[in-house]
Amino acid sequence: MTELGLYFAKKSINRSDVSRKTGLSKTRLSELANNASTQLKVRELYLIALAIDEDPGDLLKEVCRNLKLPKR
Q1: pTM (whole model) above 0.90
Q2: DSSP three-state, residue 1
Q3: Residue 39 to residue 21: CA distance in whole angstroms
Q4: Structural contact between residues 65 and 13, judged by C-beta atoms closer than 8 angstroms
């Protein structure tokens, strides 16, 4: 499960509602929630944040919390 998928589970977010509000397909939301190799687009993140009444910046921080700059 991806960070977005964990976020959905933690907040009990209904993917069908998100799909209906954003226009993103249920299949795409499932890929974003379950497949770590699927790339989340900024546009998608922004629409999801609006649909779940979350600040887009806060959602970005949550789903990207494990990203770090490489050591030099």
Answers
A1: yes
A2: coil
A3: 20
A4: no
